[in-house]
Every structure is written in structure tokens, then in C-alpha cells.
Amino acid sequence: MLFANRHQAADRLATALAAYKGRHPLILAIPRGAVPMGLRLAQALDGELDVVLVRKLRAPFNPEFAIGSIDESGWSYIADYAESVGGTPAYLAQEKQAQLDTIRKRRAQYTPLRPPIDPAGRTVIVIDDGLATGATMISALHALRAQQPARLVCAVPVAPPDTLEKIRPYADEVVCLSTPMQFQAVGQFYADFPQVEDAEVEAILKQASGH
Q1: What is the full DSSP assignment across 84-151?
Q2: Nearest by Cα to 54 from 189, 170, 184
Q3: pLDDT per residue over 49-103, tens digit each?
Q4: Cα separation of 7 and 70, whole Å?
Q5: CA 206 to CA 211: how far, in whole Å?
Q6: CA-to-CA distance for 58 and 155, rounded, in angstroms?
Q7: Residues 157, 162, 168, CA angle at the centre, nearest 5°?
Q8: CATH number belonging to domain 6-53+116-209
């Protein structure tokens, strides 16, 4: 399945998640790519939009490759292959700190006028534009589970089957539109996949919160 762009992917996810319309779900987007999708989904489902801040831990010498992830509280998920690609304890300690610093900067930047929306007791739908290793989604779901949502849903347009299996224990429901066996990168499943900049994220969150 090829998506024209993130908006089309969000519209298809909204159809798949139509059962949640009218239940005022909290849509939590993983920045930055999923934030425009999150707005569209929140509008379609009459929900509320916020971000969940997690960062992948990058492999040494290959920053696109995730060897784990970290959430806003500092909890980290480390993939079982991390050490085999150079993720030594010393490297990981340094990388965790670097990504935590980025998370804190983004929180100050994205939601300067209010705290994060409380997911406790809510139906929470975590959205990303696709999963490769699934590392950041695992951290996002773990962080949110600790905050006791009534229902925790992972929603993505595309992910490889083995990644989805890793994700399932962390969510009450996983919705994925396409599970191709041949998977190199999320971008290969979109005709148009531009970088989403911080300014766009800030503007969307302001729009969503009515500021």
C-alpha cells in the first residue's frame, strides 16, 4: 500500500478508528512527522490533540538506526541488538542524556502555555506516521500506561509484521493499515513525505488548543 501523503494516511486511519468517534479520545502524536496526522485524526474523531515526547537512541555512526528509545520520565527501552552495533553502556548513558535534553527543549517549545494533557481515565490513541524498529512507540506506550488511561491504542499506517508483534504487549489495541514484508524505511510507503519542522508542530498545537 502506498499513501499519497500523511494526510491521506490519517484519513484512512480515521476510518479504521471510527468506533472511537464520540468518545472524546486523546490523540497523542509522536513528533514531528505524526503531528499533522494527529490534528486530522483529532478533527475526524472529535478528539483532543497533544504530543507524546519520546526520542530514539541512535546507533553510533548510524543516527537513523534506533537501538532503543527514551521517554520524558527518563525510562529507556534498549533493543537486544544494541551492544552488537556499538551501544556500549558508556555510549548509551551519553546518548540518553542528549535525547532527554532534546525532549525537555521540545516540551518547552511545543506546549509553553500549558502542561501536557492528562491521559488518566481517557481513551488514548498514540499515532506515528509509521514504525520501523518500533523503539519510540514502545517508549511512548510504556510512558502512557504508567499514567493509567482507560484504553491505550497504537495507530500507524504502516509497519513490518515483526515490529507489530513487539508492540502488541504494550497496547490494548494495535491498528495498522499495511504490514509489508519488504521494509526499508517508512518514507518508501509515501509518494510525498516531507520533513515536518518545529514551526509547523508549534502552529498545529496552538491551533488545536485554541491559542
Answers
A1: GGT--HHHHHHHHHHHHHHHHHHHHHH-TTSPPPP-TTSEEEEE-S--SS-HHHHHHHHHHHTT--SE
A2: 170
A3: 999 999 999 999 999 899 999 999 899 999 999 999 999 999 999 999 999 999 9
A4: 27
A5: 5
A6: 23
A7: 70
A8: 3.40.50.2020
CA dihedral 163, 169, 172, 175 (to 10 degrees): 10
Q: Could you state, in order of their start, the residue ranges of all structural domains in the chain?
A: 6-53+116-209, 56-109
Q: Describe the strand order of the beta sheet including 62-71 as a list of residue ranges.
A: 54-59, 62-71, 76-78
DSSP state of 23: S
Amino acid letter for position 154: C
For domain 56-109, the question of CATH label 3.40.1000.10 is answered with no
With 0-12 CB in 10 A as exposed, 13-18 as middle and 19+ as buried, what is 120?
A: exposed
All residues at 6 or more sequence positions from 14 whose CB lies less than 8 Å from its CB, including other chains: 40, 41, 44, 45
Query: One-letter amino acid identity for 21?
Result: K
pLDDT digits (tens, 9 = 90+) for 131-146: 999 999 999 999 999 9
191-204: buried (b, 16+ CB within 10 Å) or exposed (e) per residue? eebeebeeeebbeb
User: Position of cell 551519553?
Assistant: 94
Taking a C-beta distance cutoff of 8 angstroms, is the pair 129, 187 a contact?
no
pTM exceeds 0.90, yes or no: yes
